[in-house]
């Protein structure tokens, strides 16, 4: 039995085709794969499958569907499973522009190889599970045919998780919860590098680098020159601003293709497996009876990279923290992140926290952040205006990606108005004050 709910954003023909593929082909494959621990339960029958396309208001790199599957195992009562399915965008141009083959390769690699390796690693050493950070992955496949790339995850909504109602900037409680969980993830990376280095690095070496539309270095340079200049101009008009600093900023942002390579180059010992897209829209929170967030899980692991932990921290700090929150609580939030890293790593390595301070002191993490924090600004320079606009009216991503990289920059600098310009200038001011430029 197939039940289908179709939102207006997806054509009926496309939705029916996708739903039929999920019901007739994908779900039987997942069952045969043994994803429901059904290998020793005898025959498994699919009683029903309901498919609901997800409205991708916050996501544009893939199409998502929710499915509700009722299975009957030979020796047991029927069981219901709730899952989310990610598929590549239908539009071939968008797929090429986003390089979705690379995205699905990376996400499949992390869910099918890295996370299981982490899970086995943690079982021997600590009480927490990697599933406290990520949803269950039932099935993932890539590198066969682009149209058949797929990732199937547990739907977190029936477990009480939901995306935050805040569409741009998060409050302190959400930020501290996210950063503590990020610290736990980064600690697992450090622990595995120390104790399972060969297996960990073998998987890391298989990650592929995403390139948007095979853009040239000159296009990347022009793109960021346009998006960063918006904040630089506003910053330059501030009282008491040293114009030599302004010139330094313009020079620095004139060759961002080289700057990004420098920022993403691994520098031991602090390099970790970064989420890579550590943003509000890639998190779901569970709330207590008072409405306070008490648990968070991360998803969308398509741009995982091996780099400085500041890649994740700066991306999150500048995209999802208001300038007021950073001004009032940044030191406390960063210490919460660092404490989570060293405490969890000490548990994993079964050593005192003091033994870690030679390589993992707060001062060294702060220095590493200053060295890499501009990464968060570069991405905020174009992404924050989109987020701020999308919070008020839905952005039509298919229209945005119809042009090239430079056209996207031209669109970005017009979005968000004066409010977005001020927010970007605040980030720039923060970097200058931290000597991160």
Automatic annotation (TrEMBL):
Residues 151-347 form the CHK kinase-like domain. SUPFAM superfamilies: Protein kinase-like (PK-like). Gene3D superfamilies: 3.90.1200.10. Pfam families: EcKL (PF02958). Transmembrane segments: none annotated. It comes from the Eukaryota. This is CHK kinase-like domain-containing protein. It comes from Periplaneta americana (American cockroach).
